[in-house]
Write a structure and sequence with these properties.
This protein is an all-alpha fold and 1026 residues long. It is built from 46 helices and 3 strands. The protein has a 3-stranded antiparallel β-sheet with strand order 2-1-3. A hairpin with a 4-residue loop joins strand 1 and strand 2. Helix 33 packs across helix 34, helix 39 packs across helix 42 and helix 41 packs across helix 45. The chain is elongated and about 150 Å long.
């Protein structure tokens, strides 16, 4: 020891002084009895070890009676007779426990009870002396490392109470604490290695938890030990598994070699990691024979156990977060390192579905040429090996860590929303940068210039100079955990669920493996506690994102409220700095909890979410294309919104909230146009992703358009933003035409194939029939899923076509004047949408769609609904004629490809015979067809007697131009409605592909006058004017 023994009486005199302060009220007899019992000391007659002390007291003229003032002398005498440190500590520990028992007993008078803390402090002081200054007792010196081993051994045997140990640590010099207690703490922590759900090592865990709960020097020492955050060891990564220059992450090492890793790790998910002790091996074998109640009983038991695990982890982490700034920094740093070390999991190659989604996962389980890929357990084993080699956390550990962070975020009150720092993303100090990890490199909502401006704004405000507060730090960690740890697990869980259903009747072994994994994931992800904690983070995340757009409205947003609109023209600098994955992760989580439940069932998550806040965020995503630039994400948001509309609480808000009523229709229209350029489906070379994304948009239209508020919103949008609205209609008509054509063409091809070769002709092509560029390296069909079932292909397109036509019908009914206001849109509707569809339904080619003679009607099997389609199409003709009859009639008669008088007349007959529409609409349609056919006849007669000059004809459509305009880059003259329709889909000159917009068109007024005069002279109708 650095201190001399002679200094100790002075240093410890404060204990005697404290005893003297109470001397006036003390009871000497009872104090003597108490000390005699706890110190095992007798002075009259004295025991051999106290004989010298008794003589000294007699010589000093004092009574041989024990009191607090002579406790130190008693301890010196007692300890001097015990040469072994273990014996000295056991004696002091027994004395300390005696004091504690007396204090808890409470039967001693108050003056004696007041002496107990003083005596216990003396015991701890002399325990410190016993380990560090043994010469004081006249014994040989003891090296500190030997003393540390003795302390460790006694701690493992539970021979030293935690409070005594803490007092002991507080009584030694600060620099001696690591030397004395490191061995003990490391040894006790290592006893947790291998902790799992079966063996939770609760006795050892409770010891560590008790140390942390003291918030004393041992807790502070704990976070600085290698066992808390082990340094990288020899790299075990396979070079082939890591990109050149990339080091393995440390998440797996922290999971398997650190204190918090052992504490947090127990889970029911990581089946391959735990082998025979995994929950799946122990509880979910032979699932085909288990009953539903039996499975739910096991899940309930596992949920209870998992809740205990998280509670145990909290019992260690929460005190450490409150002990000091350094312990808090260490805990947050550990969590940040786990997340950063798992960032490789966000790459599609490191998930079980390889980024291909459930379809690819199921397909590879069934058809992969690699036998290991067809075995789920082998794939899980490869995933565990990959985690070990690349250093990312296993799924179960990832979920537990996320859950732990959710619990830490949950106490953050909504009133604290304004204090959560959006500019934390710019922190560059090593401690804060470690918490941000790869988030600092994620794509942002703003471009590079906007982000730079926001950073300058933050520096001007002084935001970056302020020390981040704990709520901000832990909240950003939770955001990262959702992205890195939770979302990949949710994607894999969807794969398990779908694979279990797919293989139910095909392969029992694969079904049981997939179902077992699904049930285990469901055990955690659907537990009430997890869902509640997750919802708290999602609520705060959604409010955080909206508050970034409108910081001045943060308090209102925290309450789930918004005024006027949630579709901003401009947003604050805070918005541009946020990682764009924040909204993507929210949508991914919501998608999972919607899709994992059977139709008609609602996840508990949506009961915990702030309904109005969620609807505001989704609506914001729909209509803010300038600020949320990912059209695929916005399309998914529409799917979420449509699903929410099926829940009463959310539907009520959609119907009654002024903000939502004003913004949802504009938002849906903008998303509809934004997804135009999404990619084709990998599994169906003819399927475009935009069709799938637009289905929920159209379903939402059908849901809300009957409501007066949303109907008014549609009309207002069409009136105030006609270009956006007409572009939306243009794309919807293109979809309707393509979808119905694809569906009807496929049905026609099916009829032909069955006539020529029977049902066998519908099977996929053989390997010999495949073109070389349609084969993989092993000769399998790249597009087998798109060609596997033409019936399914037909059903899909017919269903989409029905949906699109129905939505177009709804809009035509509500806003016909807007559609008719633009000739180019009206022309497309008549000539490219309604006319071709009517012709396929009742024209000469309709017979190609019918079954062979004697076959049962199978239209429903293909989602082919000719009666409904005919009704919607004919009613649309009526609605448009009511708005602009002359123009509509002219547009139809100009259609030389699809217009046939007999087709329209046949449609009238079918409508009347089948009673498909109301009598009023039928009469209107009859009159419309009569006027149409009369106009066609007169036009034909007029044109037969005159030759139209070539310069009056549109070079694209070969029709008489109504409003000729010149294209400045190619000098070509075309009809305005034709070129404007082209510009809606392609912003270029069709003759040279140079950029072109509507404002560039140059009216040709003289030519226009010539054409109109010519047509008037010869009785040729040009239709209504713009």
């Amino acid at each position: 020891s650095s201190r001399s023994p002679a200094s100790w009486p002075t240093e410890h005199s404060h204990c005697a002084a404290r005893a003297e302060m109470a001397a006036g009220v003390r009871d000497p007899g009872k104090e003597h009895a108490f000390l005699s019992r706890v110190l095992s000391a007798v002075l009259d007659p004295p025991t051999p070890d106290l004989a010298s002390l008794a003589s000294e007291l007699t010589a000093e003229g004092q009574e041989c009676r024990l009191c607090t003032e002579i406790v130190e002398r008693v301890l010196m005498a007692k300890l001097s007779k015990r040469p072994l440190l273990a014996d000295r500590l056991k004696y002091l520990k027994d004395c300390w426990r005696g004091c504690d028992d007396a204090r808890r007993d409470g039967r001693l008078p108050a003056p004696v009870l007041e002496q107990i803390p003083i005596v216990q402090q003396m015991l701890a002081n002399y325990g410190a002396l016993s380990a560090t200054c043994v010469e004081l007792f006249g014994l040989d010196s003891l090296p500190l490392d030997q003393a540390a081993v003795t302390l460790s051994g006694m701690a493992e045997k539970r021979e030293l109470p935690i409070p005594f140990l803490v007092l002991l640590a507080e009584s030694v010099e600060e620099e001696q604490i690591p030397q004395l207690f490191t061995h003990m703490l490391v040894s006790m922590c290592n006893r947790l290695r291998g902790r799992d759900l079966v063996d939770q090592k609760l006795e050892d865990l409770n010891w560590i938890s008790a140390i942390c709960a003291t918030k004393g020097p041992l807790a502070k020492l704990l976070v600085n030990l290698p066992v808390f955050h082990p340094a990288p060891g020899a790299a075990a990564a396979m070079p082939a598994m890591l990109p050149r220059g990339q080091q393995p992450g440390e998440a797996f090492r922290l999971q398997t070699e650190s204190l918090l890793g052992w504490v947090v790790a127990p889970t029911c998910i990581d089946s391959h990691l735990y082998g025979e002790k995994s929950a799946r091996q122990m509880h979910f074998q032979g699932l085909a024979r288990k009953t539903g109640p039996a499975v739910r009983s096991v899940q309930s038991l596992l949920r209870h156990t998992l809740g205990d695990v998280l509670g145990q982890a909290g019992g260690i982490i929460n005190p450490l977060l409150r002990t000091s700034g350094s312990t808090r920094e260490a805990v947050l740093g550990w969590m940040g390192a786990v997340i950063t070390g798992s960032e490789a999991r966000t790459k599609s190659a490191n998930t079980l579905d390889e980024g291909g989604g459930p379809s690819h996962f199921v397909d590879s389980l069934e058809n992969s040429p690699n036998p290991m890929h067809q075995n789920l357990d082998m794939r899980l084993g490869m995933q565990t090996m990959q985690a070990r080699m690349m250093g990312f956390a296993t799924p179960g550990f990832a979920v537990n860590t996320t859950w732990l962070l959710c619990q830490l975020v949950k106490p953050i009150k909504k009133e604290q929303l304004p204090s959560l720092d959006h500019f934390f993303i710019f922190q560059e100090a090593p401690v804060q940068a470690a918490l941000l990890g790869g988030f600092a490199k994620e794509a942002r909502f703003g471009d590079a210039e906007e982000v730079d401006k926001a950073k300058a704004f933050a520096e001007t405000k002084g935001s970056l100079a302020e020390a981040p507060k704990f709520p901000t730090q832990v909240f950003w960690l939770a955001l990262r955990a959702l992205h890195v740890l939770l979302v990949p697990v949710l994607k894999e869980e969807i794969c398990f669920a779908i694979a279990a259903g797919y293989f139910q009747q095909k392969d029992v072994a694969k079904m049981e493996a997939a179902l077992g994994e699904h049930l285990l994931h469901e055990t955690i992800l659907e537990s009430s506690e997890f869902v509640s904690d997750l919802a708290a983070v999602l609520n705060l995340s959604m409010a955080f994102c909206l508050a970034a757009a409108w910081p001045e409205k943060a308090a209102m947003i925290a309450q789930g409220k918004m005024e006027k609109t949630v579709l901003p023209t401009d947003v604050s600098p805070q918005w541009s700095v946020l990682p764009s994955c924040l909204l993507e992760d929210i949508i991914e989580v919501l998608e999972y909890y919607i899709n994992i439940r059977p139709p008609g069932q609602t996840s508990e998550l949506f009961l915990h979410l702030n309904a109005e806040l969620l609807l505001l965020v989704v609506t914001f995503m729909l209509g803010s294309g300038n600020h949320v630039r990912n059209p695929n994400l916005r399309g998914k948001a529409t799917t979420i919104l449509m699903s929410l509309a099926k829940q009463p609480a959310y539907l009520h808000l959609l119907e009654t909230s002024p903000v939502l009523t004003a913004d949802i229709i504009p938002g849906c229209i903008r998303v509809f146009t934004a997804v135009e350029k999404t990619k084709q489906s990998y599994y169906d070379i003819r399927m475009q992703l935009k069709y799938q994304l637009r289905i929920p948009i159209m379903e939402l239209f059908d849901r809300v358009l009957p409501l007066e508020g949303h109907k008014a919103s549609l009309k207002a949008f069409a009136r105030d933003r006609p270009e956006e609205f007409l572009k939306f209609l243009n794309q919807m008509m293109n979809d309707a035409t393509m979808q119905l054509e694809e569906g009807l063409d496929t049905l026609q091809e099916i009829r032909r194939l069955v006539r020529e070769g029977g049902d066998a002709a519908l099977s996929r092509p053989s390997a010999e029939q495949l073109a070389q560029d349609e084969q993989t390296g092993d000769g399998s069909d790249i597009y087998r899923r798109s060609r596997a079932d033409p019936k399914e292909h037909c059903k899909t397109y017919m269903k989409m076509g029905n949906r699109t036509i129905r939505t177009l019908w709804s809009i035509s009914r509500e806003a016909p004047t807007v559609i008719a206001s633009k000739s180019n849109v009206l022309q497309q509707m008549m000539q490219n949408c309604l006319n071709p569809c009517l012709d396929r339904l009742v024209g000469p080619r309709c017979l190609e769609l019918k079954m062979q003679k004697g076959q049962a009607n199978d239209f429903d099997e293909y989602n082919f609904k000719p009666k409904e389609l005919l009704q919607w199409i004919c009613e649309m003709y009526v609605y448009m004629a009511q708005a602009e009859k002359e123009k509509v009639l002219k547009m139809i008669t100009e259609d030389g490809r699809s217009y046939r008088p007999k087709t329209f007349s046949k449609a009238v007959t079918i409508l009347g015979r089948e009673q498909l529409i109301s009598s009023q609409l039928l009469n209107d349609f009859k009159q419309f067809v009569q006027d149409l056919n009369d106009l066609a006849a007169s036009q034909e007669a007029a044109l037969a007697s005159v030759t139209v000059p070539d310069e009056y004809l549109d070079p694209i459509m070969s029709e008489i131009m109504v409003d000729p305009v010149r294209l400045p880059t190619s000098n070509t003259i075309v009809d305005r409605k034709v070129i404007e329709r082209h510009i809606m889909s392609n912003d270029d000159d069709p003759f040279n592909r140079m950029p072109l917009s509507v404002k560039d068109l140059e009216p040709q007024t003289e030519l226009r006058a010539e054409i109109h005069a010519f047509c008037t002279k010869h009785g040729i109708s040009l239709g209504g004017e713009e």
